[in-house]
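Fig. S4 source data, part A: sequence.
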Amino acid sequence: MKWTVIDPHYSALCGVTRDTTLYTVYFLDLPASDNVMDGFVEYWRRILSDGPRHWNSDWEMLVFEFYAVDGLFTATFETRDRMTQQPGVFKIMAHELTENFALEEWKLLCDAATREPIPTLLAAVQSSHPMTIWGWNYLDGEPLFALDI
């Protein structure tokens, strides 16, 4: 697995089309040969470790969007009305998800959050800035749903 950091980009280039903020994009490429669970743990670790440096006091939730065709998750910190996002955008391309749609991608994401050091990092973030964590299936257009974490 390999991280690439792209700094800065306009929001539209990051898949965030609501404003003209410059966004830092953290992109984890997870080849099919790598362990998917290890990749998701690393994804969470980066979000919770590097995300705080981008935050102001406006955000209220962490939103994960899944793009099934690409096997791509995008995570952003947002206001409750989803009109404002924080400048850190975190993406993971899990090639295994594009090759095996039987994998339960949301279950993988939630299970990874139970592996250390993620519960410790999540508790530290929650203690300084309580948030809700949501999921959204981009292609389905379904409303947000709470992730069981």
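Fig. S4 source data, part B ends here. The first strand starts at residue 2 and ends at 10.
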